Amino acid sequence: MVRGRWHTYRHGSSQKWRSQSRNFNVIILPPDPSHHKSILHTDRARFRSMAITFAGGVILGADSRTTTGAYIANRVTDKLTRVSDTIWCCRSGSAADTQAVADIVSYHLGMYATMEGKQPTVGVAAGLFQEICYANKEQLSAGIIIAGHHPSHGGSVYSIPLGGSLHRQSYAIGGSGSTYIYGYCDSYWKENMSEADGIGFVKGALREAIKWDGSSGGVIRMVVLTDKGAKRLLFLPDQGYEGPGDK
Amino acid sequence: MNHLPQAWGRPRNAILGAYNPSILQPSGPKAHTTSPIVTGTSVLAVKFKDGVVIAADNLASYGSLARFTDVKRLRTFNRRTVVGFGGDVSDMQYLDRLLLSLDIEENYGSSGHDLNALNLHTYLAKVMYKRRSDINPLWNQLLVAGLDGLDQPFLSSVDLLGTTFSSPTLATGFGAHLAQPLLRKVVDDEAKVGSVTREQATNAVRECMKVLFYRDARSLDKYSIAVITKDGVELKEDEELENQSWAFAEMIKGYGTQTV
Amino acid sequence: MTSIGTGYDLTNSTFSPDGRNFQVEYASKAVENGGTAIGIRCRNGVVLAVEKIITSKLLKSGGNKRIASIDRNFGMISSGLVPDGRHLVSRARDEAASWRTSYKCPIPSSSLAFRVGSYVQAYTLYSSVRPFGVTTILAGWDSETESRVDGQVGSGPKAALAGKTKGTKAGGPGLYMIEPSGLYWGYYGAATGKGRQTAKAELEKLDLPSGNLSLEQGVKEAARIIYAAHEDSKDKDFELEMSWVSSSDGPTQGRHEQVPKELLEQAETFAKRAMEGDDDEDTATGGGETMEL
Known about the structure:
By secondary structure, chain A is α+β, with helices and mostly antiparallel strands. Chain A has helices at 37-40, 95-116, 122-135, 182-188, 195-212, and strands spanning 7-10, 25-28, 44-45, 49-54, 57-62, 66-68, 71-74, 80-84, 87-94, 142-150, 154-160, 167-169, 171-174, 220-226, 229-235, 244-245. In chain A, a hairpin with a 2-residue loop joins strand 4 (49-54) and strand 5. In chain B, the strands form two sheets. In chain B, strands 1, 4, 5, 6, 7, 8, 9 and 10 form an eight-stranded antiparallel sheet that branches. In chain B, strands 11-2-3-12-13 form a five-stranded antiparallel sheet. In chain B, strand 9 and strand 10 form a beta hairpin. Chain B is globular, with a radius of gyration of 19 Å. The A-C interface holds A 11-13, 15, 17, 19-20, 22, 24, 53-58, 112, 116, 120-121, 123-124, 126-128, 130-131, 149, 151-158, 165-170, 191-192, 226-227 and C 91, 94-95, 98, 101-105, 108, 110-111, 114-115, 118-119, 121-123, 146-165, 168-170.
């Protein structure tokens, strides 16, 4: 299905001297009567994904199942997306929408880093995500968790649910059926955990989700973001989700 | 109008039948502006002789899911006015950013005058009405609490249609049904505002927050409360309900004649 | 001026054979006659001060402010053509607002200086415009506390910042001076306008890079330096205008504000006393006159 042309509009005044990249473009998707959600969103990630803060930064985690109705379209999906070196996001909702949004944010963060000569804060990334999700709320079906590490601000986690609001959280869980693990997370959550405990918490929550939710399954992927950068972890069902870890 | 944010601004079913949102975009996808997603419930406020008390709980619901429990829905403006937001949280955040830029621009003036609560309410009412006229409403009900140009207590509301209403006591959402009658017992007439003390007003609001927690299924026992006087804004954002009454549950046995 | 009559100074954006843009240099001349303006970067904030020459007895005292606020946390003062300075203030405000719409946070002082600097520089490139006749001092405080996204709800972890890299510091004071060419540097102490030589000499004595000077001391020193610099145009009346921006836990809570009347008066008393002291010294040593060539 072909979607309408992506429109851009300009922030900022149209004054004569536009000497730098101040004119920040936000992509606005035009309402397009020809695009119909039920057809477009065949590839839907209805899964649990989450992000937590811990003593050293943040950990993102997700299962790997993507379904089209009851059919598992992809059993080894990577739902953890890099938007800058140490800012990552978990996408849920329409795969196409969230990929497009992540690509736009990734571009802007890259631009920020080159123009300003320093890494953007996680808040800047979250703000960019929010603007796109809020301004296009009629067209988008995207729930996004943003987590990252910044040298002078440490780790932080933000959640942007469907309507495009932005919520700073200690930990965030997302995906249409994340209700399955609210109880687990609320009971076992501790602030300022060690890395090992943090990984255990994320893994425990995702294992519950995989166990009870038909739309979740496959492997568990994690990304640990600290001042040492990004580290990927993988846990396989046939190893009882014990390994291989970061091998 | 129904107290649920999802039903705001719609004709009553009893008159026109159930509302079908698809008429807004016959062939398009579901339009999210016609249904808020993450919502806050009631906001309450009462005038007293020196100012206004305003309160709202710290919950942002996702349907019936109590999803975000630390959402502060009372936002201060210019250190002298408080706006309480009910309804969609993303639209609340938009308005918060709008008020931030307004505040910054207002402070550029060197005249020494700044916007009071009445001015702010007028501004917000026009923003809300403009958006409803564009058929793109901001899905909120707001209470604006502070002082007017004569330093008299000011309290007024605006909703997603741009409708404004003033009264010595105001409540949005479920509060309009449950809290408003209770608050009117404290002060039912503008002329009586002068005889209401700060303690009376605060206690009445706290009591109503308790009733709402008992009876509003989208409420939380953690809330924010602000008192606005000419000395400024006193905002407490991490209050918890006290002295709740549950012990009588022990006396309730069965549903009729049962005694054990 | 050797350039006069050569023809290379008649339009902006025209180089002379030895690589100079004379229009920009003439713009700097406009600055040299402006009231002295200074900025001091202190340990916990920045002070701006300006010598406002009273051009008419009909002007209201304390009115017609020259130091402007940009966003919440910046102050800006220009020396030279006052309307040119106002235009730059307007541009800086637009830049700050534009940054906020894009990134939902206040613009860092380095970025604001870059943008205003680039704007000024653009006015040296075209024959249809003239350069700005001002040198601008920009003072700000970048929040050192946790960054908040505008409109944010929720507060995140209650514990200390999770995994903050040791030894890194967020935010702090910023002080920049932008010249008519668009050239700008960050400074510990900046001075421009008629009395800049005296002011710079005084600023250098303060040992600002050590970071020992507190904001309150900075206010007093700023007043004293403006009074000292006023010696160069002693025949004219002037008024002292000062503003400051402190750290979040300081007196202005990270905002740019006019220095309160009481403190301003104290600083002026201090400055006047210091001037009297100087006079005594001068008579004793029989020198101290600053010569400008």
